[in-house]
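Before a colleague's protein record goes any further, I have to sign it off. My question to you is simply how this chain folds and whether the tokens agree. I do not need a full report, just your reasoning and any doubts. This is what I was given:
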Amino acid sequence: MRPSHVQDLVNYLESIFGMIPRLQALEVTNLPLFLRARFSFFSLELFGKVWAIAFEKDSRETGTPGEYEKQAELLRPFLEYPLVLIFKTLPSNTRNRMIQKGIPFIVPGYQAFLPSYLVDIRERFIKPKEKGRKSLSPTAQLTLLRHLEKQPLDGWALRMIAVKLGYSAMMMSKAKDELEAAGLCEVERIGRSMRLKFTADKRALWKMALNQLKSPVTKTRWVQWKEPGYPALLAGLSALSRQTMIADEKLPTYALAPKVFKSWLEQGTLIGCPDAEEATARIEVWAYEPKLLGDNECVDSLSLYLSLRHSADDRIQQQLEDLMDKFPW
């Protein structure tokens, strides 16, 4: 029996062409580990030729157009046939940039872009079905990372943690429930106060939680910005270059909280740009406030790792390994 994502592609192409396409598992040898972890591969006969189909695995977060362009470049030397990326979902802004870059892709049931062969670009997305949470919420993730990097939160009352992180009591209570359900902490009741007690040492907690932690980056934007500064912190390659041997990109990358980013756009502190050619900086909008974990210059190491761990660049992967090897647990 075929996996559901494979069958979805077959059904989609059959609905377009009125015939069942030939799709077979494809063995790709000598592929770097991070690419094998991100994609599964099949061959597809279509339009009288064979294509290499790379399915992005469901557990992966949607990347940026630049990341997919880099991944496609890395994949092509290992593939005998032209490459097509297959996604379960694809945000419209990412889709449009991939079309501009000429990167072939299919979102089964919704959209397809195979230059000179097939273009099916219609706005007909449906909301994905809700599933049980597979990752911690930003509030819970920030709480855990604060414990790991800044100060131990064992014995802290929930209301004190909420004040420290700028969250409401209700949000902090939900974060407590998530951390407890994940087996990362227990809750002690002392009178009317609830206090966290983490269940392992810091290194063990990180390993226990890693599969439930997400990149803090919710979106990225190119901007014109005359005087970069705090509370924006260096992020991405700009931050990694400060802590490892990797070189920074031409334009610096900064992290901002959503409210600050929106406010600075409205005030004209930042001016949005369509691409890097007109920009002076790249902004990562984070799900939580970067300054709560970082220093006055760079974002924190663990969030930085989470933001880059799915990069297609081998150089970045090597430097991330070095970064984590040196982390002071």
Remarks:
- The two ends are 46 Å apart (CA to CA).
- The first strand starts at residue 22 and ends at 25.
